[in-house]
Amino acid sequence: GKEVLEFLRQYLVAERKDKKNETMNVDDWAFHIPRDIPRQGNGFDCGVFTCQFANWVARDEPFSFSQRNMEQMRKRMVVDLVQKQLRI
Predict the structure, then answer these.
(1) Which pLDDT does position 49 carry in this prediction?
(2) How far is CA 46 from CA 2, 20, 24, 27, in A?
(3) Are 23 and 16 contacting, i.e. CB atoms less than 8 angstroms apart?
(4) What average pLDDT does range 1-24 have in this prediction?
(5) What percentage of the chain carries pLDDT values higher than 70?
(6) 3-state class of 12 per DSSP?
(7) What 8-state DSSP symbol labels residue 41?
């Protein structure tokens, strides 16, 4: 929930300070916690889920994938990496 998002926000501020010695103002960042999102159903698809969430957000589309799509999405990601291209 919000506690995790606040922790992540402060982590980003600290990382920026540590890596680039720069301050970052995140006071105007708003939290967005969608209610109805795809759920991971196992302990090993977290990376694929994370990449898919980023992909859908980048396209500004509603999340339309689920656990049953992970094998296909993992294969597509491998092809994209091998071909050095990113399909958005």
Answers:
(1) 95
(2) 20, 29, 28, 29
(3) yes
(4) 94
(5) 99
(6) helix
(7) -
The C-alpha angle 8, 28, 64, rounded to 5 degrees, equals 60
Q: What is the pLDDT of residues 25-34, one digit of tens each?
A: 999 998 888 8
| Residue 23, token pair as written in the block | 């301050």
Mean pLDDT for 7-12 is 94
3-state percent breakdown (helix, strand, coil) of the chain, nearest 5: 55, 0, 45
Sign of the C-alpha dihedral computed for residues 2, 5, 11 and 13 taken in this order = negative
49/38 Cα distance (integer angstroms): 9
Taking Cα atoms as reference points, which of 42, 37, 69 lies closest to residue 53? 37
